[in-house]
Design a protein that fits this description.
globular, 21 strands, 15 helices, four-stranded antiparallel beta sheet, alpha/beta
Length: about 525
């Protein structure tokens, strides 16, 4: 027991070093460590160091590489004595790796035994895809209809959904696109195909109701051309369209009434669907990180990487993304490509994004946020090394451009080239066909998607404890020494199979539904 004259016990110093060649380690102790703390190997902290931040293990001279993950993540701007806090103000970022002279498909694929016997309870669609949820999509061709759709969607939830207990919900696919844009300009195809492919996400079961204003540039037949929606049962071919400017609509409520009435047959067909046992190979899992910290590459992302390897062994599809967060690891990506062509596809997409950033007069350095830095990540070079780990170790089987949809034969590990913004990345992964989402965070974020279950993984026990009703899995137990990365990966896989079978995530419990954010590199008129 502490007396008024006594001092609280000093926190137990815990440092994490990712590789034997590293000359820095991060402080894992809750609350950080005060100056004067005695560290292993006879070091004494010269500064107060927050949790997740780096400590110099050796004296560093100006210009010396600061090495974490056995990779230079910066160069010392000044002398940094051993035991010092190493933060972004002391470092110069390494130059971006050139996109020439890269190792192309040089790393052999892991020699794994297939993982069999894993199943979940899903909804099988006419095109062979499988949904993890049974949702009605109301797709909009233009932002102008959003107000009417909001009112109609709420009425459908209140009045109709109680009559259809096997329907999980109704999702309005609202956005800010459709008119006032250079719709035929280079790059305009990206938001159009994104909206089209989200409308065809497996979790909607082909039941799509389209709401159009009537005068917009993005007409319904351009959004969903003939043959784009698979015919199933008694459903008619082609999209079911409500046009608000149609002469039959007299007044606001007649528009709302029409949308609600047109939703009924879609809900009836969805309600007749039943879950059935399907192999884990039917999963299309998107992995992403947001609100990252220095623990992301230590706990949550390595656990997700192990889970990704397990899913690939089971024949499933795993998508990783975030261009600027993998750009500094490009040589790792091209080396892991399953073929030289896949390696060239990776380079093509990253080069396109480099040029896109250059047009906006920004570069990859803009990626790292103030929160990332507060969590111990000095720059994008360090962030990238922790981000790429969540892709696991499988060979990269194929590459998707922004807004593209997976083909049925695209299995295994896929690089879906997207911006790193959480909501744009999630939107594009939905368009690619994602039916389940894994999202890791160290700083914390209430991110959620209406069209797809989001499994949230905390990097630190402190976050999992404080946000106990937002995080689905605590990977911070890896840093605490309670479980291994492999055990956490298996635990996450079992959780995913349960969620795919209907178990609700915390994001679903609180109905966290962030809006679609379209990637639109075309000019606005």
């Amino acid at each position: 027991m502490n007396t008024p004259d006594s001092h609280p016990p000093a926190p137990h110093p815990v440092l994490i070093r990712m590789h034997a060649a590293d000359n820095v380690a991060i402080v894992a102790t809750d609350g950080g460590l005060p100056a004067g703390t005695a560290l292993p190997e006879g070091l004494v902290l010269r500064d107060k160091v927050p949790q997740g931040h780096k400590v110099a293990l050796h004296d560093l001279a100006p210009g010396d590489a600061v090495v974490r993950y056995n990779v230079p993540v910066g160069y010392a701007r000044q002398a940094i004595p051993a035991g010092s806090w190493v933060h972004e103000r002391l470092l110069d970022i390494p130059e971006a790796r050139a996109l020439q002279g890269l190792p192309m498909a040089t790393r052999p694929a892991p020699a794994w035994e297939p993982l069999t016997g894993l199943t979940f309870e899903g909804y099988v669609n006419a095109d062979g895809s499988v949904g993890t949820r049974n949702l009605l999509a109301i797709t909009t061709t233009v932002q102008c209809v959003a107000g009417v759709v909001d009112v109609a969607t709420q009425r459908i939830r209140d009045e109709l959904l109680p009559l259809y207990p096997h329907v999980d919900g109704v999702v309005a696919l609202e956005h800010t696109y459709g008119c006032g844009v250079a719709i035929d300009a280079p790059g305009a195809e990206i938001p159009i195909r994104t909206l089209r492919h989200i409308s065809l996400n497996p979790n909607f079961g082909g039941e799509v109701l389209v709401v159009s204003l009537g005068c917009e540039k993005l007409q319904p037949e351009r959004l969903l051309p003939p043959g784009s929606i698979p015919v199933q049962g008694d459903r008619k071919a082609g999209p079911d369209v409500v046009c608000l400017q149609h002469e039959a609509h007299v007044g606001f409520m007649s528009m709302v009434d029409d949308i609600v009435a047109r939703a009924r047959p879609h809900l009836e067909r969805l309600n007749a669907r039943k879950r059935q046992t399907v192999p884990a190979s039917a999963l299309v899992v998107g992995v992403q990180c947001g609100g990252s910290d220095a623990f992301s590459g230590v706990t949550a992302n390595p656990a997700v990487g192990h889970m990704a390897d397990l899913l690939v062994r089971a024949g499933a599809t795993v998508m990783f993304s975030e261009n600027t967060e993998v750009r500094d690891a490009v040589e790792q990506l091209t080396a892991r490509a399953a073929s030289p062509q896949v390696a060239e596809d990776i380079v093509r997409e990253l080069a396109w994004y480099d040029a896109y950033l250059d047009r906006g007069r920004v570069d990859r350095i803009a990626n790292t946020t103030p929160g990332n830095k507060a969590g111990g990540l000095s720059n994008i070079a360090e962030k990238a090394m922790g981000s790429i780990i969540k892709s696991g170790t499988a060979a990269i089987a194929s590459v998707l451009a922004p807004g593209d949809k997976l083909r049925p034969d695209q299995k295994g590990l896929v690089f879906a080239a997207t911006p790193a913004s959480d909501f744009i990345c999630g939107t594009l992964q939905l368009a690619a066909g994602m039916n389940l989402h894994v999202f890791t965070t160290g700083r914390g974020t209430p991110y959620g998607l209406a069209a797809c279950p989001v499994v949230k993984v905390a990097t630190r026990t402190d976050l999992a404890r404080r946000w106990h009703d937002l995080m689905d899995l605590n990977a911070g137990r890896i840093a605490d020494g309670e479980i291994t990365i492999e055990e956490a990966g298996w635990e996450l896989l079992r959780l995913l199979l349960d969620v795919a079978s209907g178990r609700r995530t915390w994001a679903e419990h609180w109905k966290l539904q962030n809006a679609l954010v379209l990637f639109n590199p075309a000019p606005v008129t």
